[in-house]
Design goal:
Helix content of chain B: 55-70%
Shape of chain B: globular
Strand content of chain B: under 5%
Distance between the termini of chain B: 45 Å
Helix content of chain A: 55-70%
Structural class of chain A: mainly alpha
Number of helices of chain A: 7
Number of helices of chain B: 8
Shape of chain A: globular
Oligomer: heterodimer
Order of helices and strands of chain B: HHHHHHHH
Largest sheet of chain B: none
Number of strands of chain B: 0
Distance between the termini of chain A: 14 Å
Order of helices and strands of chain A: HHHHHHH
Radius of gyration of chain B: 19 Å
Largest interface: A-B, 132 and 136 residues
Largest sheet of chain A: none
């Protein structure tokens, strides 16, 4: 299999995990099997996140336009402080070897660079400026009443599919 | 001012940013999950329209947590507007207001300009570019780039990965170029 841009962490190579890790930052590293309702935890975190997105106006097309025109510090403050807190949290988790609530060791995986990181991210930037949304806010925008954004989301899913179709032909 | 009125005001960056940052350890600790959102769209493809493409032939049920997460974001949007909605119009930089006036955008009553993002506009060239083409670029670009703002800018930078720094610089650069030099033409259509 070509173009697997990941470094396997554990000794056993899980082909399905390798495939899921292609072009993705977020994968389920847990080896545990749970009943479906354990996923309600993620629903709850998502609800908090959606409220945050709306209340901090991160889903606002106007705020994104201000950010890209350097007319407001708001979005830079949000992203900058989120990264700072994220970095500190990861540092603490590593330093004190904090485990998950199920007692598993927390896994971090290192992604290798590929040219798609440049070309794809530029394209995403174009879309972000036009629609005023990155993928997370799309879901919150629909929830907040901008129902027509469901079309934007469907189009984004179509874009993802078309990428999957042409993946082998694109430079990586 | 009561508590509901207080939290119904727009939240400042120094509240929202750190709370978003805390999503990183929360997802790690409650189940070894790496924070990211754009992959949900790939899982939807894998679940609904895999089309025999190797990129979508994986066990999407292992990533179903991500679909619960984005469903939560949608519900959070519903709750934030219905319970904690801010009745005041959004306050934006006067320079932006002046620029947008020139394109006929004057409605600041919701977070999205209603003059652009409405169902009737889908069938105009401007609306089609802004909603359909823009969405396509988000979906194609995030997957080709290997992540979005959450996966690269927040999770990737938190774990000190330089490819994520490259990706973050590229999508910020792409956004700056389009917002300043291309979007004015689209908004004038």
């Amino acid at each position: 299999m070509e173009n697997i841009n990941t470094t396997p962490i554990s000794g056993t190579i899980d082909q399905d995990l390798l495939l899921r890790e292609q072009d993705a930052m977020c994968v389920n590293e847990s080896k545990l099997e749970h009943k479906w309702y354990h996923n309600l935890k993620y629903l709850a975190v998502g609800i908090g996140f959606g409220i945050l997105f709306v209340k901090a106006e991160i889903i606002s097309w106007f705020r994104i336009q201000e950010m890209f025109r350097f007319q407001s510090f708001h979005m830079f403050g949000v992203i900058g402080s989120a990264v700072a807190v994220g970095m500190l949290s990861v540092f603490i988790i590593k330093k004190f070897n904090i485990k998950t609530i199920y007692g598993e060791t927390i896994v971090f995986h290192v992604k290798e660079f590929n040219k798609g990181n440049i070309y794809g991210s530029l394209m995403f930037g174009f879309g972000w400026a036009i629609t005023g949304a990155c993928p997370g806010p799309l879901f919150a925008q629909i929830g907040s009443g901008a129902t027509v954004i469901a079309v934007t989301l469907l189009s984004a899913i179509a874009g993802t599919w078309v990428y999957g179709y042409f993946r082998d032909k694109l430079p990586h | 001012m009561n508590i509901i009125e207080y939290i119904s005001q727009p939240w400042p960056w120094y509240v929202a940013g750190p709370l978003i940052g805390l999503t990183v350890p929360t997802l790690l600790i409650i189940g070894n999950k790496t924070f990211g959102i754009s992959s949900s769209m790939r899982h939807i493809c894998a679940a609904c329209i895999p089309g025999n493409l190797p990129f979508f032939k994986y066990d999407w049920k292992k990533e179903i947590w991500n679909l619960f997460f984005v469903a939560g974001i949608f519900l959070g949007g519903v709750l934030a507007v219905s319970l904690l909605g801010n009745p005041e119009p959004i306050v934006v930089n006067p320079n932006l207001t002046e620029e947008l006036n020139g394109y006929g955008i004057t409605d600041y009553s919701s977070l999205m300009p209603s003059e652009i993002f409405n169902w009737a506009n889908l069938f105009t060239i401007k609306g089609f570019i802004m909603m359909v083409v823009g969405g396509f670029l988000i979906g194609f670009g995030t997957r080709y780039g290997g992540g979005c703002t959450s996966g690269h800018a927040i999770m990737g930078l938190s774990t000190l990965q330089w490819p994520s720094l490259v990706a973050t610089c590229c999508f910020m650069l792409g956004g700056i170029l389009v917002a300043n030099f291309v979007l004015p033409f689209i908004l004038n259509l």
